[in-house]
Amino acid sequence: MKTILKTEITVKNICEGFVYNELEGKGLFGLSGKLTIQPEYQRNYIYASDGGKKEMAVIESVLKGYPIGLIYFNKVNEDKLEVLDGQQRITSVGRFVTDKFAIKDENGMEQYFGGMAKDKKDKILETKLLIYECAGTESQIKEWFKTINIAGVPLVPQELLNAIYSGPFVTLGKEEFSNSQNANIQKWSAYIKGSANRQAFFERALDWVSKGNIDDYMSSHRFDKNINELKKYFNSVIDWVSIVFTDVESEMCGLEWGRLYETYHKNAYDPVEISAQVRKLLGDYVVKDRRGVFEFILDDSVNTKLLNVRVFDDPTKKVIYAKQTKTAQTKGKSNCPLCSIGHDANKSKIWGFSEMDADHVAAWSKGGKSDIKNCQMLCKTHNRAKGNR
Ligand SMILES: [Zn+2]
């Protein structure tokens, strides 16, 4: 079987002679009749459902110059092609340029293709698509589909990006980050989840250096002959983590180390002190979110929300609620101690049980325990303002 990558076919070419069948809900033909968009075995057009969000997203991607992914054609004979993969995307552009639906412009106004400025129209029509033309028997094509996993497990996004931006940069990146022979992979696995050959490490490296804009980054570095910046940034993050946290804990794997590095790497930390804190918190049963321990420590050990600290149980809360409410009623004050010392209408308000939350009188982070002696009920507003400390 032969596959050829076509990079010069434009939206305009594809939409030449595009026919959309309203009755059957199918995009039928394109490429001046040469292309059958929806062979019988394909599922129906689904991008128009759910308010058309998906078909609008396709057009918005095209307008922004983002790639809409690889498309696969099956070459039946010299004059006949069928869409193997990509019919939803092709039907979306076909329907748009034939004014079947509108997108929203910057001001939220509906905009049909027919009413667009010429430069925008041209931008859409001149967009080139990435198309693999495959020629072979049906069984060969099915076999090949299986190999590249399209039919079964879909390509992970990074695999698709690697295909779209293939070139020297991707080649070097894969050599470094998806090479199981690289001895560093094991070290990196302490911090990064996923498998090297499914591009988890390459993806993470790109995600960190690009601050989440992998697409843009790959597009602008596509023809670079080196990956120095990528490697340097990735190693800075890994070095920083492994110096600050000297012990490798299983809870570290898959944390947002890129973001943590950006936020905290300029602060000074004492690794010995940190190591002791980590061990203490990971051993404390009140800490429900053990993965939050690392950022909690980096962030000066104040934001207990990161730890999801186990709070007081219901019986305890009800006892305290009853006690506080009884005292408050005899004094004519609010049963929320903080409301009662205020100056607004709430100073004598008696809150219902469900309107209040339990609070540690002595903050948990300062050693306050989660037992009844350290419990008070606050109205939800005051509890939130106190920040669950
Ligand atoms: Zn209150």
Automatic annotation (TrEMBL):
Keyword Transmembrane helix: no
Highest taxon above the source species: Bacteria
This protein's UniProt keywords: Endonuclease, Hydrolase, Nuclease
Xref: CDD domains: HNHc (cd00085)
Domain (GmrSD restriction endonucleases N-terminal): residue spans on this chain: 36-165
Pfam families: GmrSD_N (PF03235), HNH (PF01844)
Coiled-coil positions: none
GO terms assigned for molecular function: endonuclease activity; nucleic acid binding; zinc ion binding
InterPro entries named in the record: GmrSD_N, HNH, HNH_nuc
Domain HNH: 350-389
PANTHER family linked: CHROMOSOME 16, WHOLE GENOME SHOTGUN SEQUENCE, DUF262 DOMAIN-CONTAINING PROTEIN
Descriptive protein name: HNH endonuclease
Species: Candidatus Roizmanbacteria bacterium CG_4_10_14_0_8_um_filter_33_9
